[in-house]
TrEMBL record:
It holds the Pfam family NUDIX. Keywords: Hydrolase. PROSITE patterns: NUDIX. Its cofactor is Mg(2+). This is NUDIX domain-containing protein. SUPFAM superfamilies: Nudix (SSF55811). Residues 9-138 form the Nudix hydrolase domain.
């Protein structure tokens, strides 16, 4: 049997757990089907951009907050969305950070920013269609669940 190799596009992204008095900052985004999705502030890294720089840039546009002193928490890595048009190799960093400023998102996709008590974070997670939306993949939320429970791991293979 011959070995068939394939090359997957790599998606690199960084998200930040911003914590204040037992609450986690989540952004509210409107999905294509009109529903509201809650997620961590952060997003895709540009070509040549470090995950840390992507985290700082994305948090600023999505929340208005300036983050400093990034501390690594977790890396999520592996093949994501296999069999869909968005199949990719994911390399997602999760950080905590200090922050300053006022909540004032400028990203047009963000419809709100909300401090959510740790105990209520998991209730906001929605899984399911459409399958190409990677943020609705349960594997993406496992590290957040562990973080709010005080049990983050450093590495999450997908």
């Amino acid at each position: 049997m011959s070995h068939l190799s394939r090359t997957l596009p790599i998606k690199r992204a960084a998200h930040v757990y911003l914590v204040h008095e037992g609450q986690l900052l989540l952004v509210e985004e409107r999905m294509d089907d009109g529903s509201i999705f809650y997620g961590l502030p952060g997003g895709k890294a540009h070509a040549g951009e470090t995950l840390g720089d992507a985290a700082v840039r994305q948090v600023l546009v999505e929340t208005g907050l300036h983050v400093t002193d990034l501390m690594f928490v977790s890396l999520i890595e592996g093949e994501l969305l296999t069999g869909t048009r968005n199949e990719c190799y994911a390399n997602f960093g999760r950080f905590t950070a200090s922050f300053s400023g006022d909540l004032a998102p400028t990203d047009p996709e963000v419809v709100g920013v909300k401090w959510v008590p740790f105990g209520q974070v998991e209730a906001l997670v929605r899984y399911g269609p459409p399958p190409e939306v990677e943020e609705r993949n349960p594997l993406i939320w496992v590290p957040t669940r562990d973080f709010v429970r005080g049990q983050p791991r450093a590495y999450y293979p997908i």
